[in-house]
Amino acid sequence: MAIEREQLLHVAHLARLELREEEIERLEAQLNDILAAVSKVSELDLADVPPTSHPHDVVNVWDQDEPRPCLSAEDALANAPEREGDFFKVPPGGAA
Amino acid sequence: MIDTLRLTAEEAKRLLEAREISGAELFAAYLGAIGERDQELHCYLHVCDDPGGEGIPIAVKDVIGTKGIPTTAGSKILEGYVPVYDSTVVERLKAHGLRILGKTNTDEFAMGSSTENSAFGPSHNPWDPSRVPGGSGGGSAAAVSGGLAPWALGSDTGGPIKQPSALCGNVGLRPTYGTVSRYGIVAFASSLDQVGPVAKTVRDCAYLYSLIAGRDECDTTTVELPQPVELPEEADLKGLRVGVPKELNEAEGIEPGVDAAVQAAIAKLEELGAEVGECSLSLSVEYGMPCYYLIAPAEASSNLARYDGVRYGYRADAAERLEMYERTRNEGFGDEPKRRIMVGTYALSAGYYDAYYGQAQKVRTVIKREHDALFETFDALVSPTSPTVAFPLGARTADPLAMYLCDLLTIPSCMAGLPGLNVPCGLSEGLPVGLQLIGPQFAENTLFRIGHALEQAIGFDPVPERLR
After folding, report:
1. Alpha-carbon distance B421 to nearest alpha carbon in chain A (angstroms)
2. Residue A90 and residue B358: Cβ atoms within 8 Å?
3. Chain B partners of A75 at a C-beta cutoff of 8 Å?
């Protein structure tokens, strides 16, 4: 199945990517090539095969619920593009 | 005079312990080599001052977080980011006295096979600077082979430790999934990402692995090693059974010179006493690539959602929040991450999940079972690591699918979470050829043993001919 422009823009929005016009055209062709190649996985009939989400069998690793030292607010904010007091500052929300 | 092109970490350790050289002299020798050759090779994105001490210097791939040292993952979106904590692997290096020489170049977010996707420009192969060093960890591999570091840490998702090691003529280990902590590593595809050593010799590689492996309470996917790491010593391979998967050794696109060097090395395995037999991985080789290029982008699209211009990294100017997110991500990410975010988001989106991501996870089970079955008969498997020797810069950048084929031979075992070791086995057209040894989970010691015996028997000179 081929991706068309409208669907590509929908996926870009889901991924929060604003694409430039020339990128949209290039990506449309490349994504269709890539999807055609990866669609090969559908050739196999795997109805009875369980999925592997993770290559080894560690499950449910529990830890004691004990407080431990963590990053200070100052450290956590050290790389902030913009801050106000102990908060990360962002532009106001628009009509999304 | 310290010859950084030849000095192994093992020898450096001996010289330091015997006080024949000082820690300061050793560090300065590498800084000197970096000053001399890194302008040409561009292995490093950041070079450190000597932190002092008597430990061995090491280079670290720039996806690995280092406290107080910039960590960009080769991306403009992380330009200027300085971690406020060390990754667990770096903590362990420091606990053993190792000193960080610098951060090595990588394809952006480790997505690529040549370092040409780095936002800061490609690295060059020390054997021939007009060619790529492989990727994504090309900077680490080129630094080790160019004498700009005695050893290095790389990271691997679909082949980025083994493939650059093959192209640059050094030893690289992709460890068993879960043996090395990823805490503090820039995440790409979490069910695949692994950190591993790059070195000049198998013994150096094994030693470095022993320093970083083991359970970390900050990464719940990690486990303790069932057996301690053994530094290989034996020269013979009696009692070992090595399988030669037909599809990995006869895949379309394997260059004749690569094939010749690897087949000659396989003959050596037999001379050394190993029992060698043909076997098959037909489904893994046929479906490994499409499976990888669904799972890795799907996980990447989720992991890379964190780069939104809020807490760290690049932020684009915008009056409104949504506009800020979208513009930041468009300006901050390069082409390859965008492509993978798009493929991954699509593969995970409503209506397509079962057909793509869900199906790929089932294919992964098939790949794992096919490998598991072979390890009932064999202790290890062998094949070329890369179908080709290092290719010229720019040769594959126009076609993402052609670039993806670089990892054709390393991807199947990565999907199964298995360890793999690249060992240089000869030259083709004057450029290094590497073979990969693949083992069952936690079989690193077996791979080190085979790799070491082979290394001794072949006598490969890891110093690039033009620098000798």
Report:
1. 18
2. no
3. 84-85
pLDDT of residue A55: 81
Residue A49 C-alpha, separation from nearest chain B C-alpha, in angstroms: 6
Please state, in angstroms and rounded to a whole number, the distance separating the CA atoms of residues B430 and B410: 23
Nearest to A11 among B329, B349, B361 (CB): B349
**Residue among A17, A27, A80 whose CB faces B311 most closely:** A80
**Nearest chain A residue to B317, by CA:** A91
Q: Is residue B210 part of a domain?
A: yes
Domain count, chain B: 1
The tens digit of pLDDT for each residue in B39-77 reads 999 999 999 999 999 999 999 999 999 999 999 999 999
Question: Is B236 a member of any domain?
Answer: yes
**Domains of chain A by start residue, with CATH:** 1-42 (1.10.20.60)
Euclidean distance between CA atoms B254 and B248, whole angstroms: 9
Across the interface, whether the CB atoms of B329 and A81 are under 8 A apart is answered no
Rounded to the nearest 5 degrees, what angle is found at the Cα of B273, between the Cα atoms of B270 and B274? 65
* Chain A residues touching B81 at Cβ < 8 A: 79
Region of residue B159 (phi > 0: left; psi between -120 and 50: alpha; otherwise: beta): left
Closest alpha carbon within chain A to B219: A61
Is 0.85 exceeded by the ipTM?
Answer: yes
**Single-letter amino acid code for the residue at B222:** T
Sheet holding B275-279, edge to edge: B44-47, B99-104, B57-61, B151-156, B194-199, B171-174, B420-428, B431-438, B380-384, B241-245, B275-279
pLDDT digits (tens, 9 = 90+) for A34-67: 999 999 999 999 999 999 988 877 778 888 899 9
